[in-house]
Amino acid sequence: MRRFKGLAMTVVMGGVIAVAAGCGSDDAKTSGSEGKGSSQLQGEVITDGSSTVFPIMEAVAEEYMSAQPDVKVSVGSSGTGGGFKKFIAGETDLSNASRPVKEEESAMLDDKGIKYTELKLAFDGISIVVNKDNDFIDSLTVEELQKLWIDNGKVKKWSDIRPEWPKEEIKFYSPGTDSGTYDYFNEVILEEKPMVENATLSEDDNVLVQGVEGDKNAIGFFGFAYYAENKDKLKIISIDNGKGAVEPTHETIKSGEYAPLSRPLYTYVANKSVAEKEQVADYTQFVIENAGELSEEVGYISLPEEEYQKDLDKLKELKK
Length: 320
Prior knowledge:
Elements: E1 9-12, H1 14-23, H2 32-35, E2 43-49, H3 54-67, E3 71-76, H4 80-88, E4 94-97, H5 103-111, E5 116-125, E6 127-131, E7 139-141, H6 142-149, H7 158-161, E8 171-175, H8 180-188, E9 200-202, H9 205-213, E10 218-222, H10 224-229, E11 234-236, E12 238-240, E13 245-246, H11 250-255, E14 262-270, H12 271-276, H13 278-298, H14 305-319
Parallel strand pairs: 2-3, 2-4, 7-12, 8-9, 8-10
Antiparallel strand pairs: 1-3, 4-14, 5-14, 6-10, 6-11, 12-13
Helix pairs in contact: 1-3, 3-13, 13-14
């Protein structure tokens, strides 16, 4: 599996370009312009947004710059909400998201005159994890997840969830409030009720990994790729949504059996950037053509091929 870095902001430029140029995968498809025999492109492509989507887009950027080394692609991970703020401000060409754009965000984009196109990248399953030394939890029901994570004004112990569990205070680790993963969890598990006040929040999923890894009474959640990358350090928890406990795996996420925590991942591209910047149009095509393969490589689940074809058809219309 490809190693990836959960940084607050990674700009894939300079020395990284040289590395990418030397080690790009032969399996990745050639960029759109090169495939037509065109000259090398120049300029920059600016992306930001979801830390969950970050590993996919980091991998795509590295592969793209091996084909187009004169294009500088920056990949930020300020969270889905943070990414949309920059998208609305006109600071980015693509905004990566682990949830669909909200109505209020869409309205602000409309007010700014920014037209955009939604593109699906892959499937993810939000993974609930505990410390590797936790020997009493194997599965949780959705109701128990709610009992754990919804604030009741009290310090929670494991024994509050099941009496036979230890009388030890639980330590919580959650994506930050700018995260689409937080938003999704808030909607489908918390049902918009407040999260426990003592949760440690971070937009950097690696901080959450380290927090759970370092405390035997910790529990946390984040995208499946971050669990897959750290499975030797963490213990995954199966979730029972009323039909028996289901562990998040490639198969159960793709089928939707891992419910209600399976979801698609997105990127949103500014139509104007595609129309006016040849390198953005070329890069976006490269994203769509390679998202399936590179999503699998970093630990997510590819979409059916027809979904990527739909995105390519959308992009073709934007180029007209």
